[in-house]
Amino acid sequence: MSILSIALAVIAIFTVAYLVYGRVLRREFGLDDARVTPAHQVNDGVDYVPTTLPILLAQHFSSIAAAGPIVGPVLAGLWFGWLPALLWIVLGNILIGALHDFASLTASLRHNARSIAEVVKEEMGRVAYLSFLAFIWISLIYVIIAFTDLTASTFVAREVESGASGGGVAASSILYLLLSVGLGWLMTKRRVPLGIATAIALPLLVFVIWIGPKIPITLPDLPFLPAAKGWAVMILFYCSVASILPLWMMLQPRGYLGGFFLYAMLAIGLIGLFFGGYQANYPAFIGFTSTKGLPLFPMLFITVACGACSGFHGLVCSGTSSKQLEKESDAHAVGYGGMLLEGLVAVVALATVMMFAPGDPTLKKGPTEIFASGLARFANVLGVPMGMAMSFSLLAFATFVYDTLDVATRLGRYIFQELTGWEGTRGRVVGTLATLALPLFVLLTTKEQAYLALWPLFGASNQLFAAMSLLGISVWRARTGQRTLYTLLPMLFILTMTLWALARFVTQGGVNAIVSGVMIAIAVFLIVSALQVTTSRRAPEQE
After folding, report:
1. How much is the pLDDT for 400?
2. What class is the 3-535 domain?
């Protein structure tokens, strides 16, 4: 079967969903540009900054579309075949994931751009709020650990296809971050118009991709600190700096440039699919049980998380994007449209599995290398040399991870400050260090590529967090006399799949079993609290 025909069908379905169902949700949630958004109401120049749609969409898109929509689809395609993964990406995205992101963004707008946890606090009370914070903390810890480990593993690759080394990717990554700081300085301090600043930055971005492999940066393997763990420490240090700096200095320009990486990756992927003549050589369906003994139900729905539905997106929507929305109608493009774009990233990632026949040596590599190898073949259709194409693909992957890591750290800092009331510079610094302490400990004391062991529970915690976010949003809509059908039915489906998966982890013992048991207990408590609040006439207890 032609991969092109599959890609065209997905693009058509997503376009119709954006124009039809997206507009239905826009009316249902009552978006109104006459309302002044929190970005304009507060406008503190640090966290609340009115941002034009092109910049905000690029930043939001790059923040949510990290390693998740790449690693998850690749693993699910390998384990179960490409058809189950594709169906979940398309249907889950339209009916659950994009709805979740849009609803989280809108709910935050209606609550003065506060986080989804603060929405739960206002609607369900302080005890539910504290329980919800525990969910967020677990989710962020798993995000930071898994994605830092993924990036560090990429940086220590001794040699990958066509000579694109991990050290070259590391060098390009560092130059990319410095370029982001320079772009932020140009636009904010020098008042250079966006078009001119972009015209300056994009050629430099191409130069960064080209020069990195020529000046590789490698860390030595020390007895007390292997190279991979050294990179992990450096990545977490970057996260700490990015979390404290003002948005204009790092997160916004980095997200803007990262958006171009994503757009370029999508363009290369689609051009490769359109003109490469690739066929779906990998099996469409392997069976209801993978070769690793994993059942299709419920494991598919937690393996492919970010490409179809992700609770982390709710944190981005309510933690950073809602504080920058220039007008309410932009929530349609940022919330619903941004998730559909991530679905396309997931489809391109899945195609890098579909193009290879069973038994191909490429499929024995890790998900990062499989994705990079497939994307490099797509770029080769344009005549790009395989070496540079591989460098671009690996740098794009690292960029996606950076975009999520610094946002996740900033969100953890927000949660700390919300919980303690500790404002100002000292609050930002202490909140950042508190967020990164546990990931640093875990990454220094566990073996390399721990992300493979963490991925199932990362996916489960991510999906359960999405379900709990939809639960809180449903309570808000019920208490304000709005219909809950649009949020309640998706919540019930993803809740069922996730609790099913967590119950399997509990029976397997170990640390994951303990964490799974805690998450199940918190979920049950929040469900009971939601029922009590919606069936009672009294307001939730806030103290």
Report:
1. 73
2. mainly alpha
